[in-house]
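Protein chain data
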Amino acid sequence: MQKIIFIGILVLFTQFGYSQEKAEPNPTKKNMEKTSILGLRTTIYKVSDIEKARDWYEKAFETKAYFDEPYYVGFNIGGYELGLQPEEGTKGEKIESVVSYWGVEKIQAVYDRLISLGATENEKPYNTGGEMMTATLKDPFGNVIGLIYNPYFKLKE
């Protein structure tokens, strides 16, 4: 009896053209495709001297700017943009309300290299749990730069 029911269901699926390709896509993926937020694109640091900052960031991130004008300098860092803009108005101490963390494989080595280039210590590398580690430094212009080693996060291809 079970064989007959199974064969009957199989015939129905075949007759009506059932296939996995026609199944409803993952609802989470479907919702993501409709969102107006596309994802993180740019982190901008305000700097007092854009030329000195450009030179420092070229050394720090080991890449040349793809866009270099007096009003904006842009770097492509692994598919994300790091931007520099001139500071306007009074220059006080910068607040640390939001920190962008740049992914690294060897957090201590990168942290030490940035310190050797003139960054100052903010938070030494530490384990946040599991294998994840974070650290923050301040660039020579007072901006907080976050570093993260996160083996759990993978970019979608």
About this structure: Residues 38-149 form a domain with the 2,3-Dihydroxybiphenyl 1,2-Dioxygenase; domain 1 fold (CATH 3.10.180.10).
